[in-house]
Amino acid sequence: MPGKLKVKIVAGRHLPVMDRASDLTDAFVEVKFGNTTFKTDVYPKSLNPQWNSEWFKFEVDDEDLQDEPLQITVLDHDTYSANDAIGKVYIDIDPLLYSEAATVISGWFPIYDTIHGIRGEINVVVKVDLFNDLNRFRQSSCGVKFFCTTSIPKCYRAVVIHGFVEELVVNEDPEYQWIDRIRTPRASNEARQRLISLMSGELQRKIGLKVLEMRGNAVVGYLQCFDLEGESGLVVRAIGTVCTLDKISNTAFLPACNSPSKEMKESPLVHPPSHGCRSTHNSPIHTASGSRLTQNFSLSVPTLIYTGMGSGSAGKEGGPFKALLRQQTQTALEQREFPFFTLTAFPPGFLVHVGGVVSARSVKLLDRIHNPDEPETRDAWWAEIRQEIKSHAKALGCHAVVGYSESTSICEEVCILSASGTAAVLNPRFLQDGTMEGCLEQRIEETSPPGCGFFHIPYDELNMPFPAHLTYCYNCRKQKVPDVLFTTIDLPAEAMVIGKGCLIQARLCRLKKKAQAEANATSISNLLPFMEYEVHTQLMNKLKLKGMNALFGLRIQITVGENMLMGLASATGVYLTALPTPGGIQIAGKTPNDGAYEQHVSHMQKKINDTIAKNKELYEINPPEIPEEIIGSPFPEPRQRSRLLRSQSESSDEVMELDLSHGKKDAFVLEIDDTDAMEDVHSLLTDVPPPPGFYSCNTEIMPGINNWTSDIQMFTSVRVSRLSNINLTNQTLNKNFNDLCENLLKSLYFKLRSMIPCCLCHVNFTVALPEDEVIQITVTAVAITFDKNQALQTSKVPAEKTLQRASTDNEEQLQFPLELCSDPLVSQPFSPAKEVLENAGSHTGIPAAQRATSVDYSSFADRCNSWIELIKLKAQTIRRGSIKTTASLDKASPLAEGHLRHRSVPSCTNSTVSVVKMTPLSFIPGAKITKYLGIINMFFIRETTSLREEGGVSGFLHAFIAEVFAMVRAHVAALGGNAVVSYIMKQCVFMENPNKNQAQCLINVSGDAVIVVRESELEMVPVQPSAAVSQPASAGDVTT
Amino acid sequence: MTNDLDIFVGNTTLIDEEVYQLWLDGYSVSDAVSLRLRSGILEQTGATVDVLQSDTMDHYRTFHMLERLLHTPSKLIHQLHFQIPPSRQAMLIERYYAFDEAFVREVLGKKLSKGTKKDLDDVSTKTSITLKSCRRQFDNFKRVFKVVEEMRGSLVENIQQHFLLSDRLARDYAAIVFFANSRFETGKKKLQFLTFEDFAYCAEQMIQNWTLGAVDSNVDDMDVDLDKEFLQELKELKVLIADKDLLDLHKSLVCTSLRGKISVYNEMEANFKNLSRALVNMASKLIHTKDVRDFFIDLVEKFIEPCKSDKWTLNDVRLFLTQYTTSAHNLDAFRHQALWDRYMSTIKSCLLKMYHD
């Protein structure tokens, strides 16, 4: 199916001076797609050229449209010598290939050069005319939507969640080709950027084909990663969850009407999820694609991109190459055997039970063979791991794995492959073709009491896979629950939680001898289980120290370096009401006769007890605790007694019994038998809580806070630390690593102090060991200010949540897609009920109004071109704005002062550059996503040979990361968007050679480009009483 | 363990106004850190010195990267590299172009050349403003001067349009450009009592009345250069002092109307001829560049100082100058009324501004 790509080059601005004599530039532009190149005229002697070119038209296959990026090169014309390149812009035209997303890409793009960074901007317009595809045997998969978001995107609803999809593509890394010795660093970098862009395009297309074959129309939780394997090549791999999504339109009431019938017709087989979640019949599409690919293999040339289709290995004894021997049909069948979901948040009713975290790792030696006939190696590796994960899940009595992710860590020729997820039992109805209504009905029958069902154990109590203390659920008292629960998913919106959550990290280093090849791999594999164990212990200790009983969003990263292994686990701890109250930590000394020692132990014990008490207060964990009181808990809270009676009075006998069942046994005993353990205890206590007004978590939402303002700041912070002493021990290493992380966090708190009260959400740490004794930590997170007045909530929250949840459920049943849509932020909604209960005051009204103002102005500014006008406006608005600010401050409470000031300022003036918000979360607080414009997946390389001149490594990387943000924003703005959600920096590989004054950095980022509209602008739900409050206020503010 | 690399990059560029001021004031990172320490920020936030150091470094790096853009503020507004809310952009620009009173008094009226720049270390020692800050301020003057020097249209508007400054700051820059162009002497000891604001006011008056722009709004350099034709014509005023009768008549007119109203009548009467001569002589000599440069010295030496020594009050000066100007209209033999007004109105405004009680 051909398509027509049309490109117009409008103008450039702020170009660099390329001709020193005239201080000007004679710029022209080359537009390249595939093998076709067009050129504009030379616009002589200007730094702000106006090309206003004709429409350059490329007639291409949609396969190419998906794979190839549009490449725009700006050059300086030189009559006598070769033209000098100023820089390039790569535009991924994928968002133009499906009808619902963007229709045109138009805007200013930074012109990027891998050596000089951003050098001016260029204005480009891109359009695509697609002809309808009637060919079923096609290679392209235009129309399949991709989302990085790991939940059902906000303006869609899931008709069917089909399941796991994966693919990988390998190639030689241009950096390691022989030609790299003779070409310039720029040419090499550009070759790499282009190749990766091409590979990810191809990968996405292939995933798309699988999606179509699975009868889905979208991939949610799409995670694409690069493995830079050095000499052995470059791997681009992706996983995701295939779904059939329906757009929720605000006007149409029958969104699910056409698709179910079609689905039913085409895929009549219904498969229980335990046997995979896809139909087993082989589609013609698949065979076609498979065979053609096989043909390609034999024709391969070194630069050919190939792929492995056989990614499943059945049975535990299935060798890694077994897949090779299988027929296409079987392979296709096997592939479906992974009931994995990359989602971390789910539609209500989807999760039935959660078992716990399952993970698998394997150490592999990267082979140096570039044999394109053996593409299955990497596939087989992953298949093995997935198989292991699956069997772990089975052992937990679960048939599915949710919150699933995969990662690698490579050092020289050793590679650690990791996969982890949360074993779960899912509601089968969601996985089948059918409408949502059916399953909702079923769910209501099934999950007895809302808010605790998923914490009930899915496995057989008598046949437990691991030792655990089970108790009756503290919520419903019918089912058994574990004493502690670890998961990789986000906290379900309907889960009942007491108090707030907090970021919990376990940090660990282990020295390892330098070794080669197999010996190295063996020593690493020997170390791994110990590391896992210690990480787990640390997490458990810290969780207890916080007085909490569950971890969400757990992510354990093991990084391999030349002479050490690093483990970093991050998770968000919470107190689930359904789970028992965690016992304290008891310290036991080994040498009881030593008096001084005893004293020391008891001193430590006291410190720990104090910390727990302090933490409970800090995170507002005050659960109903009668049983604890009876047995003489160290932290009695008589105040809570009355509240407790509300829920538990009728079953006091049971309570007694329950209590005895865990009681003393539950206390976690730490034995201090050697210095190691001593260190552990000390390190437990060194974690400093965030300063007042700060909270942090690594999940999407912070339990206990649900009154976000729209003041958000996404940031990336990088630290590289060199370990100074040569005689490193595990202890010093641990301490160094711990300090590094703690200091980084402290720095973040300090930097963001103007946003207090504030929560750091989705805190994502990545550790790398680029060299011996060098640790690199990269953190990306978003700081969101919340309204403290509303934050004063206690345990009322869960009840309300369920209440409101229930109301939404009813709406769903009544088929009100409009309502569902108007309350898209299931995770942090401003429910009408809550507004009434907690805030009838005007505190929310004012910020909301100001938010509205700011949007008004910026959108107006887009149209405002005249400079004089702008200046005049500015002079006035600044003055007026400041008066207005003080006025509103007078009204607002002093607590809100910080963010009010912050936010009200930008609302005053105009800007010609549209603001693009970025966040690692799947939503923008205070705003509603109205449209998904497509996936942003960008890869950049930056290199310098004048490191000192650019401000050293910090200056270099600071500028580069700022440039990456700028390029992401420009692409989103050109698509017509104003925000990026689910933003993630997947890779930040930094290498330096200070002696040569050189440095190089590779960054890979992705996210979903969206259009958001402020909730206050929407005012779609007139029933909301707060609307009445904010309306007049906003009217007043807009006039300022 | 040392941190080789330590950065923080926000999607919205984080700007700390305090640190920005320290940076603008030319403090090194370590000086800035110790100054921040003294402000008690650690006690307020519970942070450590390391954190403060890293934070300061980060901000300095950001400012360093922004500086290039601040040189052409319109670039800062249009660029995509740093996402900065418009109000913050305005703040960055305004503060970057702000200058110290002490510094501007040293440089005002000097040629904005390399030579002057070399002497900045003396200025720095004298004013105890860091050399870095002096250089920034000097470069700002020079940059603005270069851009608007040969431009058509209103000086203030041109500055405002190209540098996106507030109205007040743009007016100040207009004065600086005007002074630098005509090289008015402002540094002499006798002029030390005058503030920049005094000079800026005088400059505004002169721009409004004495430049080409005052008569024709569509010429190059209209606000920067004095109207040569006007200066030439000023010679004609000499008749007021050269013609003895005219001078006497003028004196008697002024004396009559001021009798009883001015507190220093006798001194005024005694000094009338000297003062009138001084003012008219200045007018007739303004065609010479040298005398333009000495304009303010002349005003001080020949008018302000004599009045001061006789203890005239500001009100006395105002009354005298008003009468002195209007009485000339009643001199039938004097035919340059328009010219006289154009000259005297500015002189009067300047003198009144410069006459500190």
Automatic annotation (TrEMBL), chain B:
<dbReference type="GO" id="GO:0016020">
    <property type="term" value="C:membrane"/>
</dbReference>
<dbReference type="GO" id="GO:0016607">
    <property type="term" value="C:nuclear speck"/>
</dbReference>
<dbReference type="Pfam" id="PF05427">
    <property type="entry name" value="FIBP"/>
</dbReference>
<dbReference type="GO" id="GO:0017134">
    <property type="term" value="F:fibroblast growth factor binding"/>
</dbReference>
<dbReference type="GO" id="GO:0070527">
    <property type="term" value="P:platelet aggregation"/>
</dbReference>
<protein>
    <submittedName>
        <fullName>FGF1 intracellular binding protein</fullName>
    </submittedName>
</protein>
<dbReference type="InterPro" id="IPR008614">
    <property type="entry name" value="FIBP"/>
</dbReference>
